[in-house]
Write a structure and sequence with these properties.
heterotrimer, A alpha/beta (330), B alpha/beta (347), C mainly alpha (305), B: alpha/beta, eight-stranded mixed β-sheet, 30% helix, globular, C: 305 residues, MetI-like fold, 12 helices, 68% helix, flat, Peptide/nickel transport system permease protein (chain C), transport (chain C)
């Protein structure tokens, strides 16, 4: 049994001018200790998916349907009290903006210790010792001094390390990281990514990484889910996905990224564009969600929404025209 | 490509820090501290660096959005850094700007028509109303927006379309130089490609020079002719892009190149992870400003500030870097040779 | 797109299962009705304010008798079919007086809101753009703000003769510092907006920057602030009248009516009660309208979801 199983997840929002189907029928699973990346552009539903797992969607105006099974237990049926016991303990989350996610009036040590005292009933002294231990783990120098400091005394990179320390304090089985490095500079991002890779081996938590940056995905993920307009359009292990993307959207995304080192390899070609805009999620889309921007679109696509098909072992894509392995071979 | 459209010599911008009841100055933020470069006609120069390095301040200083602390700015032969506002106003036409945020860069209470007409009217470019109309239509065509969209409000457009309107506004004054301040950074990948292609097409079509300010090295490499790398208010390296990406000659550039995640799973590359954070521009380190994070720093770096000088084994002409390592014999210089391919995992 | 859809799914085609709706559909209403439906606070506040305005305008027709005519024989009557809200110590009809009182309250509220906004806007724009003026004006405003507005208004009233005009003037002066601070703050943040930088870069002169780029964008927050000023001015006016420093006793204002009823509060509470209820409802209505406008005009709120 997988650690996390998401089945037919639908998260809709009521807005004055219609229902926003932010996530509409998403299925995926995460195995224990595995790193799964969910990628897509803004508005594709990747963050809403993450928030839905922890039931952090305000209801109303939102509503979540489907099933989210964590260790076999459906979180959508759990009581608020049970959810509080899970959040920050068995499943924890890292957010994009470390400054706004930390409480400015509490010391770093208090904030790490708080979850420990709440979930594991540690005493104040034990919690502080553990906080120092966690700061050491995430590579903050002089942890004994830093635990008594306030967030504003730390740099952006340090704050994100503190966020990671808080998230890992209770030894979660699942860590949801929502754009953890997007707000950081390249050199700091490199530090944090290195830390995440290192911690993955040491802590053993499964990670759901939400990002729009395909470079970050290639660096840390094992499996990748590509989302577009509230649906999963492709899923594969990271290698095959980058080497052999099947869905036209994934192909378009990879083609529209300039390649670093293009001036050396002489591949200075014009960037491939994906024409047009993401469709409005407030109207039902009858056929394929990508049909309005797809270069390979036919009548079939606008009439029938393609189901996710296994195009190669472990590689699924929702496209009528993405070739299956045996067809390619033949 | 021989006459510089813009020459910048020793540009400085120090922001005073006011504190206390009487608002006395207690110190300065050395945001830009002696920056020099030229941009040739039709050339793209990129200014890269991390947040707080002063790259955006350079852009705003060139546009004279605030008074400069020091230095010379020569735009098309006229020295504009100390020019009174009234004299400068007609010259502003030559240098226009595209900003990062497509939402706050357009006045929400103006229709697209009025946004685009503003520079045309200010610079008195249109002969009559028919000419103005023709110019407006031309601008919409140039940025590939439908002509009838001109009577709509900014909030009716998506981020990418707003950025096109921002570009059209910059083009309205028929400039020689456009400053793109993180102009594509806030956009989604697929929209980013559309805008990058549009900027490149416009540059070839109109022969524009561009100052492309960005933190995204992949986009910079794609867009640019030459690259200047900034760190803590100073330029540490300038080179034609092939030379910079193929053989970086400053340890900071080297670390930047190795830090960018590349979309190639399992890529084998040399990784240089810099320790610590960028020091505060209020109290920049003595000597070389990078020595606190530099993996190769030695005694001289802590005391003596290196100057930008041509480097010996560059891949192209005009490659300058500010690093003491180049005074050492090649065997003791970790930056010798062309290491770009290893850093970028092109092996 | 829907033309020629085959009746059967072609063979070999894998169609995704249809996802149902998990919440009832939204009936999107367009136009004015839709706006009110999306902003119920504006609808409720606006209706109440409108109602009060009607009461004020049509007071002479709605009132049963002259609000100032004395009738010693009919003193302190309880509310009845003849005197809906009873009569006061001098036998004047409280109902008629309360209706006429709405005129004073609304006149003062709206006038103060208008003049304070206008003057505050001018001062705020000046100090947001001229650094030297800013330091002088804002220190002066700080000084004024250290005096409670009600005290300032009382002091100003003490210098003049009691009249509605002077009440408006006194409260306006007391409210100006708050408005100019608000406008100055908005102007300073607007000056940092990239579209203002872009306008400067494209050769727009400072007067046009203010007129075209700054002023229109200050109007939304100023409108919201004006409603709060209006509400606060109505309360201040009532307090001034209540302590005898406001409108002259000859003019029926809610403060005056309450002041006259104060002595009989223990035995004839209705004399104070009715004007107080009208004042509360009016202030509440104006504040509701302000809250609704703030939510509707604030682009950050509107952009959510």
């Amino acid at each position: 049994m997988a650690l996390l199983e998401v089945e037919n997840l639908q998260t809709h929002f009521r807005t004055p001018d219609g229902i926003n189907r932010a996530v509409d029928g998403v299925n995926f699973h995460v195995n224990a200790g595995e790193t799964v990346a969910i990628v897509g552009e803004s508005g594709c539903g990747k963050s809403v998916t993450a928030m839905s797992i922890l039931r952090l969607i305000p209801e109303p105006p939102g509503k979540i349907a489907g099933a989210i099974r964590f260790n076999g237990k459906n979180l959508l049926e759990a009581s608020d009290k049970e959810m509080r016991a899970i959040r920050g303990n068995e499943i924890s989350m890292i957010f994009q903006e470390p400054m706004t996610s930390l409480n400015p009036v509490l010391t770093v040590g208090r904030q790490i210790g708080e979850t420990l005292r709440l979930h594991q009933g540690l005493s104040a002294q034990e919690a502080e010792d553990r906080a120092v231990e966690m700061l050491n783990l995430v590579g903050i120098p002089e942890a004994k001094r830093r635990v008594r400091e306030y967030p504003h005394q730390l740099s952006g990179g340090m704050r994100q390390r503190v966020m990671i320390a808080i998230a890992l304090a209770c030894n979660p089985k699942l860590l949801i990281a929502d754009e953890p490095t997007t707000a950081l500079d390249v050199t700091i991002q490199a530090q944090i990514l290195e830390l995440m890779k290192d911690l993955k081996h040491r802590v053993g938590a499964a990670i759901v990484l939400i990002t729009h940056d395909l470079g970050v995905v290639a660096e840390v993920a094992e499996r990748v889910i590509v989302m577009y307009a509230g649906r999963k359009v492709e899923e594969a292990a990271v290698g095959p996905l980058f080497r052999n993307p099947r869905h036209p959207y994934t192909q378009g995304l990879l083609g529209s990224m300039p390649k670093l080192g293009s001036s050396l390899t002489g591949e200075e070609t014009r960037l491939a564009e994906i024409p047009g805009l993401v469709p409005s999620l407030k109207k039902k889309i009858p056929g394929c969600v990508f049909a309005s921007r797809c270069p390979k679109v036919t009548d079939l696509c606008t009439q029938y929404a393609p189901a996710l098909e296994e195009k190669a072992p472990g590689h699924v894509a929702a496209c009528h025209y993405a070739l299956r392995e045996e067809v390619v071979a033949a | 490509m021989s006459t510089p459209i813009l020459q910048v010599n020793d540009l400085k911008k120090h922001f005073p820090i006011k504190a206390g009841f009487l608002g006395g100055t207690t110190g300065y933020v050395y945001a830009v501290d002696g920056v020099s470069f030229d941009i040739m006609k039709g050339e793209t120069l990129s200014l890269v660096g991390e947040s707080g390095c002063g790259k955006s301040t350079v852009g705003k200083a060139l546009l004279r959005l605030f008074p400069l602390t020091g230095g010379q700015v020569i735009l098309g032969g006229d020295r504009i850094d100390d020019m009174p506002n009234g004299t400068l106003r007609p010259l502003r036409r030559k240098m226009q700007v595209v900003f990062q945020d497509p939402f706050s860069s357009l006045n929400p209470r103006m229709r697209v028509r009025d946004i685009l007409a503003e520079p045309i009217r200010n610079f008195g470019l249109a002969k009559d109303s028919a000419d103005l109309e023709q110019r407006l239509e031309g601008l919409m065509d140039k940025v590939r927006l439908p002509r009838d969209a001109i009577n709509r409000w900014p909030h009716e457009f998506s981020g990418g379309q707003r950025q096109r309107i921002g570009i059209a506004r910059a083009l309205a004054g028929e400039p020689d130089l456009i400053i793109c301040d993180e102009a594509v950074s806030a956009l989604d990948v697929s929209v980013k490609a559309q805008i990058v292609n549009l900027l490149q097409d416009l540059q070839t079509e109109l022969g524009l020079a561009m100052l492309f300010i960005s933190h995204d090295l992949a986009i910079v490499e794609h867009m640019t002719h030459r690259v200047a790398v900034m760190y803590l208010g100073k330029i540490v390296e300038v080179a034609p892009k092939r030379s910079l990406f193929g053989a970086p000659k400053h340890p900071y550039t080297e670390a930047l190149l190795s830090a960018v995640p590349v979309p190639m799973p399992g890529a084998q590359r040399e990784r240089i992870i810099l320790k610590g954070d960028v020091p505060s521009p209020i109290n920049p380190p003595k000597g070389c400003r990078f020595h606190t994070r530099c993996p190769y720093a030695f005694d001289r770096c802590r005391t003596e500030e290196p100057q930008l000088r041509p480097v010996a084994d560059a891949l192209a002409e005009g490659h300058i870097a500010a690093c003491h390592l180049h005074d050492r014999p090649a065997a003791e210089n970790p930056l010798a040779g062309a290491k770009g391919a290893q850093l970028l995992a092109l092996g | 797109m829907d033309g020629g859809r085959p009746a059967t799914i072609p063979p070999g085609i894998n169609v995704a299962p249809e996802m149902g709706d998990i919440m009832p559909p939204v009936k999107a209403k367009k136009g004015f009705i839709g706006f009110l439906r999306r902003n119920p606070t504006i609808a409720i506040g606006g209706t109440l304010v409108l109602l009060m305005v009607c009461v004020a305008i049509f007071a002479p027709f709605l009132a049963h008798r002259d609000p100032t005519s004395l009738a010693p024989a009919l003193r302190t009557r309880e509310p009845s079919a003849q005197f809906w809200f009873g009569t006061d110590m001098l036998g004047r009809d409280v109902y008629s007086r309360v209706l006429h009182g709405a005129r004073v309250s609304l006149t003062v509220g709206f006038s103060v809101a208008f003049f304070a906004s206008l003057i505050g806007l001018t001062i705020g724009l000046i100090s947001g753009f001229i650094r030297l003026a800013d330091s002088i004006i804002m220190r002066f405003m700080d000084g004024m703000m250290s005096i409670p507005p009600i005290l300032l208004a009382i002091a100003l009233m003490a210098l003049t003769r009691g009249s509605v005009g002077n009440v408006v003037l006194a409260i306006t002066i007391a409210e100006i510092p708050r408005v100019s601070r608000l406008v100055r703050g908005v102007v300073l943040s607007l000056r940092e907006q990239p579209y203002v930088d872009a306008a400067v870069a494209s050769g727009t002169r400072t007067p046009m920057i203010i007129l075209r780029h700054i002023l229109p964008n200050t109007l939304a927050p100023l409108t919201v602030q004006a409603t709060y000023i209006c509400a606060s001015a109505m309360i201040t006016e009532a307090i001034l009248s209540f302590i005898g420093a406001g409108t002259p006793p000859i003019i029926p204002s809610w403060g005056n009516i309450m002041a006259e009823g104060r002595a009989l509060w223990q035995v004839k509470p209705y004399i104070v009660f009715f004007p107080a209820v009208f004042l509360s409802i009016t202030v509440l209505a104006v504040n509701l309208l302000g809250d609704g406008l703030r939510d509707a005009l604030d682009p950050r709120m509107a952009k959510r979801l």
